[in-house]
Design a protein that fits this description.
The protein has one domain: Alpha-Beta Barrel (TIM Barrel), CATH 3.20.20.450. β5 (151-157), α7 and β6 (174-177) form a beta-alpha-beta unit. It has helices at residues 3-11, 50-54, 62-80, 101-104, 106-115, 135-147, 165-170, 179-182, 189-205, 217-225; strands spanning 21-29, 34-43, 88-92, 122-127, 151-157, 174-177, 208-211, 230-231, 240-241, 243-244, 257-258. The protein is built from 10 helices and 11 strands. By secondary structure, the protein is an alpha/beta fold.
C-alpha cells in the first residue's frame, strides 16, 4: 500500500458500506478506588463482535475505518462520560493505517473539540501484535500525538514482535500487559517473575502499567502484590454496548450510563 494511497485515505477515503458502534469496558485504579477510564471497543450495531466488523474492512477502506472509529468513540464518550471529569477514553488505532500523523489526527481533534473532551483524557493504543512496517514512522506518530496532548499506550505488551525494544524506541505513556501473559499468574511462578520484572522496568521508565484481561480474584491479588494498580477485565466488568457499565464498589463515574438514559 503506497503512501499516496494513504494520503488520499486520510483526506477523503473510500466510503464504508457497513455501520458499527462501540462498547465500553472500564479500566480501574484499585489503589485509588476509582474508574480510571474506559476502553472503546468496536462492535456491530447489534452487538456483533469486533472480528465480524474488521472482516469487512478492505485495503481501500482501512484509512476511512480507522478515522471513523476514532470519531465514533470520541462522540459517544462525549455523550456518555461524566461531565467535568478526568475519566480517560482509550481508543485503539492502526499505526500502519496512518500516512501523515499531523494530517490524520485532524478528525480526532475536531471530534474532541465538538465533544468538549480534553486531549489529555484521550489515550491511543497501538498493538504490539501488529508488525510495524516502519518503526521510525510509528515513532513520529507517537511524538505527534504526545505533542497534541494525547496519551499513548502499547497494547498486548509481551505478545508481539518487538518486545522491550518498543519501550526504548517509542516511550509510550502506558503499556497494557497481554492477557495471555497474565492468565493463571497466581499459580505460575514464571509468569510472576516475568510480569514483576516488566512492572519494575516500566516504573523505572516512568511508564504506567495496565493489567488487562484479569478474570479472577486470585489473578488480581497476585498482580497487586507484584505492583500493579490499574486493571481491566471480565473479573470487574464486561464491555457494554454504547453504555458505561456499573462496577460494584466504585463511585459515580462507574455507574451504568447509556444513551437511553436522559
Amino acid at each position: 500500500m503506497t503512501g499516496r494511497m494513504g494520503c488520499r485515505g486520510c483526506k477523503d477515503g473510500a466510503a464504508l458500506d457497513f455501520t458499527f458502534t462501540m462498547a465500553f469496558q472500564p479500566i480501574l485504579d484499585l489503589a485509588q478506588g476509582r474508574v480510571w477510564g474506559y476502553e472503546a471497543l468496536v462492535r456491530g450495531p447489534g452487538g456483533e463482535s469486533a472480528a465480524s466488523i474488521l472482516d469487512r474492512v478492505t485495503p481501500e477502506t482501512v484509512y476511512q475505518f480507522d478515522q471513523a472509529a476514532r470519531v465514533k468513540a470520541i462522540d459517544l464518550a462525549g455523550r456518555l462520560f461524566p461531565a467535568d471529569d478526568a475519566t480517560k477514553l482509550s481508543i485503539n488505532f492502526m499505526p500502519n493505517a496512518v500516512y501523515e500523523p499531523a494530517a490524520c489526527i485532524r478528525s480526532s481533534l475536531e471530534a474532541a473539540r465538538r465533544a468538549g473532551f480534553a486531549h489529555d483524557r484521550i489515550m491511543f493504543e497501538f498493538t504490539e501484535n501488529e508488525k510495524f512496517r516502519d518503526t521510525a514512522h510509528v515513532s513520529r506518530i507517537v511524538a505527534e500525538y504526545r505533542k497534541q496532548g494525547f496519551l499513548t499506550a502499547l497494547d498486548d505488551f509481551g505478545a508481539g514482535f518487538a518486545g522491550l525494544s518498543l519501550l526504548a524506541n517509542f516511550q509510550p505513556d502506558m503499556i497494557k500487559l497481554d492477557m495471555d501473559l497474565l492468565r493463571d499468574i497466581d499459580t505460575d511462578r514464571r509468569r510472576q517473575a516475568i510480569t514483576g520484572g516488566l512492572i519494575r522496568i516500566a516504573r523505572d521508565l516512568g511508564i504506567l502499567v495496565i493489567a488487562e484481561g484479569v478474570e479472577t480474584q486470585s489473578e488480581m491479588e497476585t498482580l497487586q502484590d507484584l505492583g500493579a494498580t490499574l486493571f481491566q477485565g471480565y473479573h470487574f466488568a464486561r464491555p457494554h454496548l454504547e453504555t458505561l457499565p456499573a462496577v460494584a464498589g466504585f463511585p459515580s463515574s462507574g455507574l451504568d450510563r447509556s444513551l437511553q438514559v436522559a
